[in-house]
Structures are given as C-alpha cells and as structure tokens.
Amino acid sequence: MTQACRRIIHVDMDAFYASVEQRDNPALRGRPVAVGSAGRRGVVAAASYEARRFGVRSAMPSVTALRKCPDLVFVPPRFEVYRAVSAQVQAIFARFTSLIQPLSLDEAYLDVTQPLLPYPSATAMATAIRGFIHAQTGLTASAGVSYNKFLAKLASDYRKPNGQFVITPAMGADFVASLPVSSFHGIGPATAARMNALGIRTGLDLRRQPLSRLLRHFGKAAGFYHGIARGIDDRPVEVNRPRRSVGAEKTFDTDIHEWLAAQASIHDLAHKVWNRCQARDLTGVTVTVKVKYNDFRQIVRGRTGPDAVRDAADVQQRAALLFAPCFPPPRGIRLMGITVSGLRTAGGMPAPQQLALFG
C-alpha cells in the first residue's frame, strides 16, 4: 500500500500527567502544576499548560522550573492512574482500528485506512475519538490527520491543546517547507544544530540538499531526512514492536563519590532490572551502564557476553565490572543506570515481537 493511500491519525493527550492531576484535584485547576519532585535533584516529568506559559517543560530540573515559576505546584507522579487512563484511551482506539502503534502512555499512531467503523473520513474518526476520550476520561486530546506518520504527528501539534488539523497530500511538501527542522519529529536538538551549522534551517533548506550531501553528513538517516523534506514517509504503523531493552536508573539526593555507596546502588538496580526481566520472561546478552555526573556529562559503557544473564547476581556482577573503572570519579555522580539488551526469552529464543500496549 503506497503512503498516498494511507489514512493516519496521530492522537496526543494534552499535558497528560498534569491534566490527570488537575482532573482529580479541583484545587489544582487553573494553577501551574508540575508532576515530579520539588527537591534539589528533582526533575519535571510533566507540566500543565499554565506552567508552560512560564517556560516550564518536562525533563527540566525542578530548581530551574521554580525559578521560572515561583508559584509552581509540584505533585508526585501516580503512574498506576496514568496507566489506567491510558488503557481507557487504548480501548477507544481499538473500536476504530486494529492498527495501533503507541509511542508512550499519552500518544499513538492509528492507521484507519480500513476502519472498523463506517465513518466517512479520517477527519470524522479523529473528531469522534477525541469526543469519546473527553466523555470517558474528562481529558482532552489533540489529533493530526494525514497520509503518513511524519505529517500526522506534525499536524497534531499544530492546533494544541484540544485541537485537530489535517494535512492532505496536496499540502504536504509545502507545509513542511516553512517549518524549522528543529520542529521535525525524528530530528533531535543535536542533529538540528548540525543542520543549522550547514545552513539547513527549514524544511525548504533541507529539500534543497542533494541526497549525496545528506549521506555525507548524516549517514543512514539521510534517506529519511530527504523524504520528509518532500512530505514523504513510507513507514507503516507498527502494531508489533519488539522490546529492545529492560533497564532502571537512580538519581541520588546527594552526589556519590565512593565505590561502597555505588555498590549498594548497583545491587538495588540489578535486582530491579532482573525483576522486570522475569516479569516478561526475558533475559539478554548485553549489559550497559550509565553514569551521569553533577555537571550533567555522562558516560555509557556496555559489554556483550557469550551467554545471557542468568539472574540478578549475574546482572550485578557484569554491571559492577563496567562501573568499576569510573571510580574514583572525577566529579560527583548524580545518577547511575543499568540496562539489559540483546533480549531473548528465558528459554533461550530471541525475544518475540509483543503487542505494544500503553504502559
């Protein structure tokens, strides 16, 4: 099926975590709210639109957020509630199509080219989906409708919050041309900066680049960039997506400097990762560790073994060997993390593709 024949909807819940908190606590409505911790090492997980007006954003250190918005109200995250609401939203999606690709708890792509319900258009379906979401959860969602995933996601951002926008095949290339490349899904801040340094600031600038130049500077991603600059994106909505890794990390209230303190955290993280592996009947051959220093620089080290990890003690031992060269550290460590990848079932077969669900 060619991309021009597809009808794709991207649905994105509006300020999801913060909106759930405002829904459940009327005292928070209309106030700048951040989901996260207000502590010295806290990070904003999500911000309400009232907070965003002050420049508060997700992943921002809490101290920075409070400087921008002294009246900011912090509430602790309740992931079990967010997952439950997300399951409600997923059930609504499933009424319309079986081709659903969740990206996170609060957003997903839907391929409604062959819908399960007889709506006259993808636009009508998107309107109906947003209506059902509001009726059943009390929350709002924005939607983008287009003929491919890239444009559908751009469209859902265009009328936020609680809005909807359609990009038709006739509009695609021109719509992309006027936008900054930094707004493109799939082009992160570092890549956008590299493009800007090369004189590529808008979609039109990107379209003018020969594929050979993009290949020279961006390698295997060049084909994707070359296509989206023209409104082309052939990626299908992927229902079955393999889990790539299982991990856990910990941010410390106080920087750590000593190997003894690190060993205690390695033990806890290894057991947490292994418990998550066991819950999914998975193991893996690669262990990767992450260390983030108090200046936010970080290092990542990994090693692939001939055999898959056997238990928590094995994860701990392999991780400790990777962490050990980092001590004594050149500066205080604020975060440590462990990830197991190269996944396969505990019985030894490669990990099967699993139905991607919210949460």
From TrEMBL:
Catalytically driven reaction(s): DNA(n) + a 2'-deoxyribonucleoside 5'-triphosphate = DNA(n+1) + diphosphate
Subunit relationships: Monomer.
Enzyme class: transferase
Gene that encodes the chain: dinB
Protein family according to the UniProt entry: Belongs to the DNA polymerase type-Y family.
InterPro entries: DNA/RNA_pol_sf, DNA_pol_Y-fam_lit_finger_sf, DNA_pol_Y-fam_little_finger, DNA_polymerase-Y, DNApol_IV, PolY_HhH_motif, Rev_trsase/Diguanyl_cyclase, UmuC
Organism ancestry: Bacteria, Pseudomonadati, Pseudomonadota, Alphaproteobacteria, Acetobacterales
EC assignment: 2.7.7.7
Record carries keyword Magnesium: yes
Cofactor remark: Binds 2 magnesium ions per subunit.
Name recorded for this polypeptide: DNA polymerase IV
Binding site for Mg(2+): 12, 106
Catalytic residues of the enzyme: 107
Compartment(s) of residence: Cytoplasm
Pfam families: IMS, IMS_C, IMS_HHH
